[in-house]
DNA sequence: GTCTATAGGAAGATAGAC
DNA sequence: GTCTATCTTCCTATAGAC
């Protein structure tokens, strides 16, 4: 492994860490397992990262980014509110079904970070980011086209409802393993949200 | 510690384990920390439990029982559907706000068990139990009094929606720390469920 | 920068005296 | 049954040759 830029090495280690965590869980992601996955010697770890905690902070940032990119890229586009809402929900759900391991990991990481004194701040910011994303999603649903819509509940409340419902349905699927059953519950959520949008 | 019945010791160790886990997280609940909390010598652990995994199985059973007892004891009683639903939700929510640590622990334990090969079965059964409890709750709402009600969606779908929504709102509160905001989202759920009950 | 070798500690589990 | 002392293993982190 001759003279790789340290930044490149950092990236590879973060990717390797995510791979190990998705496959075997956060607790299995020891420095040894991570460097083995990245095919590097153990010693390389500590001249790329000051500590394991520093790596974990970066892992959380990357994973959070993944989820948000997908969610927000699908809000745009034409059509009526119901269609766009349905499309956004379906895109999110497709990602959950395609990559359940990555979603399971986000929950594990949030919990892990919340317990780790040095990472508690990261965990809080992570959830704020999700709430902000869902707020933008809701505002994008009403703001972008000619229809003048008003939600029958305040946007902050709706954003929390959507965040909670998505989390809950995802967790249901991850734990029960039945995509059809969880998908039906998600449709109930989507219909509810559509009903909360009253034409002004 | 003279001649305590082994069964008594087992109970004390389970309680101590829960105390440590609520305070410091599942990963902090080492055999050493648990026996220290129970004020017992380390050696006593392994003549009460064959392994740490065996203890964890019992911890999960006890914690699951706690949550279900509270939830189901509040379904009964008189009043219209909306009132009883509201009462049940409020009782659940009160427990979450009073004992956030215990609820946080249920999520941590589910995840931990799902990763542990010997406990994966326990994790699946745990979620089945929650679903069954919410199904009973929904049936109790319609079945017990003179009103003849019919849900506008199938009961299994509704049960999953309720399970997911409660989980999601609880998680929102645990991560955001704002009981008022999460409570408002929960009310949205309660109103939605009430609307799904059409008089037959 | 890169690697091998190892320090230093904490984990689960057990041996064996009482 | 009860407890102390210890085994074995695995962890994060570092020292130091190249």
TrEMBL record, chains A, B:
Residues 30-49 bind DNA. SUPFAM superfamilies: Homeodomain-like, Tetracyclin repressor-like, C-terminal domain. Residues 7-67 form the HTH tetR-type domain. One of its GO terms (molecular function) is transcription cis-regulatory region binding. Keywords: DNA-binding, Repressor, Transcription, Transcription regulation. This is TetR family transcriptional regulator. PROSITE patterns: HTH_TETR_2. It comes from Streptomyces triticagri.
